[in-house]
Amino acid sequence: MNIAVFASHGGSDLQAIIDGCKNNKINAKVVVVISNNGNSMALQRAKNEKISAYHMSAKKYGCEEALAQEILAVLSKYDVDMIFLAGYMRMLHVSVLKKYNNRIFNIHPALLPKFGGKGMYGMNVHNAVINAGETETGVTIHRVNAEYDSGEIVAQTKVPVIENDTPEILAARVLEREHEFLVEVISDISEGKIILG
Question: Which among 19, 59, 185, 194 is least buried, having the fewest CB atoms inside 10 angstroms?
Answer without folding.
Answer: 59
